[in-house]
Design goal:
Elements: H1 2-10, H2 13-36, H3 42-55, H4 60-79, H5 85-95, E1 99-101, H6 108-111, H7 113-120, E2 126-130, H8 133-149, E3 154-157, H9 163-170, E4 174-178, H10 179-189, E5 205-209, H11 211-217, E6 222-228, H12 234-242, E7 252-255, E8 260-263, H13 265-275, H14 286-300, E9 308-311, E10 314-318, E11 325-326, H15 335-342, E12 351-358, H16 359-363, E13 368-373, H17 380-387, E14 391-393, E15 403-404, E16 408-410, H18 413-430, E17 434-438, H19 441-453, E18 459-461, H20 469-475, E19 482-486, E20 507-511, H21 518-525, E21 535-542, H22 546-551, H23 554-562, H24 574-621, H25 626-641, H26 653-667, H27 673-676, H28 683-700, H29 705-734, H30 745-774, E22 795-798
Parallel strand pairs: 1-13, 1-14, 2-4, 2-5, 3-4, 5-13, 15-21, 16-21, 17-19, 17-20, 18-19, 20-21
Antiparallel strand pairs: 6-12, 6-22, 7-8, 9-10, 10-11
Subunit structure: Monomer and homodimer. Part of the essential Sec protein translocation apparatus which comprises SecA, SecYEG and auxiliary proteins SecDF. Other proteins may also be involved.
Membrane topology: Peripheral membrane protein
Family: Belongs to the SecA family.
Length: 840
């Protein structure tokens, strides 16, 4: 109540911001005539002068009014597009590192040019992030005309570019690209083996278009670079044939809200009987247990043409939020293989993670982050808590006149879709264009089938025919057009009204059900009523909709019964609409908690990732790695000698033998005469021998010693880091069970993750020193002998659940020249001829 009163008296934060921004807008407007008087060639000269001033320390805020006035006039000259006053406020919001919520059609793409030019003056690069390659290319070319006019360079990052093309694009003043490509380039840079392979040059300032889609909807989506594991896929098929023999409720139960499946005691016994095993929970059967649960999820929680489609013999995921296909993305943890077995297509091998990062942690790396969208205010708390971003609602240039009708509520799905079809027919006969929003491919095809029976011509825009998307969206506002779309397919492209449509009410938005998030509903509504155009929207609901069934209050059903609704009868009721909105708020809060928990877990990995990537970059940049090797030697010797140093009693023979064995194993000290004597040499004496071994290696290849050292440091780090990622995945999978022991799973994950990380660092040092101390160079070293390959057969995925998106062809790694009877430099402990040398 106090918040409500304060808002009435003082206005909302956004209203206060707009009021505060008015003097700035007046200042820019006052400069307009000065810029209009300049010739074209004077613009790049002014920009170059500003760049020099900023490099010498001038603050960007001091020149912001001048720069905004300059960009506004450049837009007028080059594109015949002059920034409105509200767009100036939007640009100010973005420059300050906030989110600008601007309605559809308010020109967000043009708004971005203002802070982009201003921040490009720092010379550190500006990234403009879009949701797909089409928009990245379109916006880079479209707005690039302004940037080029001002003497600034523009690059674009899309799928399929070579490393050289990517490096050039990142080297530009302004770089457009998709969230996936920016994230993958960051991961690839941290798998590179030399500075010449790096493409990015830092994370200065990013403006994220459709920021709610990228930072909220895809927040649980890790970007993953993976390589093939060696696990067999045959068990998926065996378990898949078993699942139809299990009975729901008797053998297994389903939690639709949590999207999880669990076996009952009877179910466990039934599975054991079918698989001919004694104990499903025996450690030896853990894989079969896991496959069984994933197969049950595949059969009972994932629907064809809703969650995925089958195309050309492959299971392709459908994006829950956009309805777009996501070729290359794969559910992880065996779920995708379970779906492949269910659909009787080829079951592909699982992949092992080589590098990963969530969008949450990737975008938090930027020194300054801003965002634009039509719908962010409902998630303002999450943006503030997770990213430290304030949301500012920018007023529209013209008043919004769209009419948002109350929800129409019916009893059953059948009645609802019949009413929808009849309403569409009525609107079509009137000539009013209709955009029908559905939540799945299945529902879009159901509406299409009903309209065919009523002989209503229409277009269907879903993941199955996305090739025609641009054309279908372009025509959706024309007279008499009926367009059925899954969720926000077509997002980023305005639907413009055709001739005569304004007079009959504009574009009509018809939602076939409420989404779990109010924001997604608002995005659908936002397709209509752009730039003061008329429009209308209404959602149709049924009591057995998923949202109503799973999250709606039982009071809704009770109310409907008391109202005595008859078959086919629809009602409008504000109480029901309010109850539905409350259900959506509960789901939004639940999903926020999930994303927050995910981030808390990923923060542990992120701290470790930062340490490893920082050390990796140091290995690539340091010209002399001797200090790092010296530190490794000291750390390892401290650890090896710990049982015999600092104790009052003399060490027993077993302890001495153990220390000697470790010195032999890691540093190969047995080849030195000084080490052959009985007893144990001192720590300092052992250290001297290790350094002597390293100096011998330096003498054998003086010109290439640093590259040899770099080679083994990177090789050891990458190999052990990959294993660590797998261990952390396994830890994460089972950590929830700690709750049953009255322990906080998050704290347990942090504690055990720290221990695993310390162990990993020790293994990197040990593996590196093993390789260097056992290496014998028997021939002249060639220049290319210690060049590194990129990870073999890696693939890229962006799905909560990881994927093979693109396989890289393996390149041959040249082995160091070693004798066939020498220990293998890979660190396996075997002879070279029986290890890496077998195929050499």
């Amino acid at each position: 109540m106090l918040k409500f009163i304060a808002k009435k008296v003082f206005g909302s934060a956004a209203e206060r911001y707009v009021k505060k921004a008015k003097p700035f807008v007046d200042q820019v407007n006052a400069l307009e005539t000065q810029w209009q008087a300049l010739s074209d060639h004077e613009f790049p000269a002014r920009v170059a002068a500003w760049r020099q001033e900023v490099e010498q320390g001038r603050d960007l805020s001091e020149i912001m009014p001048d720069v905004f006035a300059c960009v506004r006039d450049a837009g007028r000259r080059v594109l015949n597009m002059r920034h409105f006053d509200v767009q100036l406020i939007g640009g100010m919001v973005l420059h300050e590192g906030k989110i600008a919520e601007m309605k559809t059609g308010e020109g967000k793409t043009l708004v971005a040019t203002l802070p982009v030019v201003l921040n490009a003056l720092t010379g550190k690069g500006v990234h403009v992030v879009t949701v797909n390659d089409y928009l990245a290319r379109r916006d880079a070319e479209w707005m690039g005309a302004i940037y080029n006019f001002l003497g600034l360079s523009v690059g674009v990052i899309v799928h399929g570019l070579t490393p050289e093309e990517r490096r050039a694009a990142y080297g530009a003043d302004i770089t457009y690209g998709t969230n996936n490509e920016f994230g993958f380039d960051y991961l690839r840079d941290n798998m590179a083996f030399s500075l010449s392979q790096l493409v990015q040059r830092g994370h200065n300032f990013a403006i994220v278009d459709e920021v709610d889609s990228i930072l909220i909807d895809e927040a649980r989506t890790p970007l993953i670079i993976s390589g093939p594991s060696e696990q067999s896929t045959g068990q998926y098929v065996i378990v898949n044939d078993l699942v139809p023999k299990l009975e729901r409720e008797r053998d297994f139960t389903i939690d639709e809200k949590a999207r999880s499946v669990s076996l009952t005691e009877e179910g466990v016994a039934r599975v054991e009987d079918l698989l001919k095993i004694e104990n499903l929970f025996d450690p030896a059967n853990i894989t079969l247990q896991h496959h069984t649960l994933q197969a049950l999820k595949a059969h009972n929680l994932f629907q064809r043409d809703v969650d995925y489609i089958v195309s050309e013999g492959e299971v392709v995921i459908v994006d829950e939020f956009t309805g777009r296909l996501m070729p290359g993305r794969r559910y992880s943890d065996g779920l995708h293989q379970a779906l492949e077995a269910k659909e009787r297509v080829a079951v592909k091998a699982e992949n092992q993670t080589l590098a990963s990062i969530t969008f949450q942690n990737y975008f938090r790396m930027y020194d300054k982050l801003a965002g634009m969208t039509g719908t962010a205010d409902t998630e303002a708390v999450e943006f503030k808590q997770i990213y430290g971003l304030d949301v500012m609602v920018i007023p529209t240039h013209r008043d919004m006149v769209r009419l948002d009708q109350p929800d129409m509520i019916l009893r059953t799905q059948k009645e609802k879709f019949q009413a929808i079809a009849e309403e569409i027919k009525r609107l079509h006969e009137k000539g009013q264009p209709v955009l029908v929003g559905t939540v799945s491919i299945e529902k879009s095809e159901l509406v299409s089938a009903l309209l065919k029976k009523l002989r209503v011509p229409h277009n269907v825009l879903n993941a199955k025919n996305h090739e025609q998307e641009a054309q279908i969206v372009a025509e959706a506002g024309h007279k008499g057009k009926v367009t059925i779309a899954t969720n926000m397919a077509g997002r980023g492209t305005d639907i413009k009204l055709g001739e005569g449509v304004v007079d009959i009410g504009g574009l009509y938005i018809l939602g076939t059900e409420r989404h779990e998030s109010r924001r997604i509903d608002n995005q659908l509504r936002g397709r209509s009523g752009r730039q003061g155009d008329p429009g209308e929207s209404r959602f149709y609901l049924a009591l057995d909709d998923d949202l109503m069934r799973l999250f709606g209050s039982e009071r809704i059903s009770g109310l409907m019964e008391r109202l005595g609704m008859k078959e086919g009868e629809a009602i409008e009721n504000s109480f029901v609409s309010k109850a539905i909105e409350n259900a959506q708020k509960r789901v939004e809060a639940h999903n926020f908690e999930i994303r927050k928990t995910l981030l808390e877990y990923d923060d542990v990995m992120n701290q470790q990732r930062e340490v490893i990537y920082s050390q990796r970059r140091q290995i690539m940049t340091d010209s002399d790695l001797t200090p790092m090797i010296d530190a490794f030697v000291d750390d390892l010797l401290d650890e090896i000698y710990a049982p015999v140093i600092g104790h009052k009693e003399e060490p027993d023979e077993e302890t001495v033998a153990s220390v000697r064995a470790k010195l032999e194993e890691v540093f190969d000290l047995r080849r030195f005469e000084e080490f052959q004597a009985d007893g144990l040499m001192s720590r300092d004496e052992a250290g001297a021998l290790v350094r002597r071994s390293i100096e011998e290696l330096r003498a054998q290849a003086p010109a290439h010693f640093h590259e040899i050292t770099r080679y083994f440091l990177l090789d050891s780090l990458d190999r052990v880091w990959k294993e660590h990622l797998l261990h952390m995945d396994h830890l994460r999978d089972g950590i929830g069970l700690r709750g049953y022991g009255q322990k906080d799973p998050k704290q347990e994950y942090k504690r055990e993750g720290y221990n695993l990380f310390q162990d990993m660092l020790a293994r990197i040092k040990e593996s590196t020193m093993f390789a260097l101390c056992h290496l014998r160079i028997k021939a002249e070293v060639q220049e290319d002998d210690f060049k590194h390959e990129e990870q073999k057969q890696v693939s890229y995925s962006a799905g909560t659940e990881a994927a093979v998106a693109k396989a890289r062809q393996p390149q041959k790694r040249e082995q160091p020249k070693v004798g066939r009877n020498d220990p293998c430099p890979c660190g396996s402990g075997r002879k070279y001829k029986k290890c890496c040398g077998m195929n050499a």
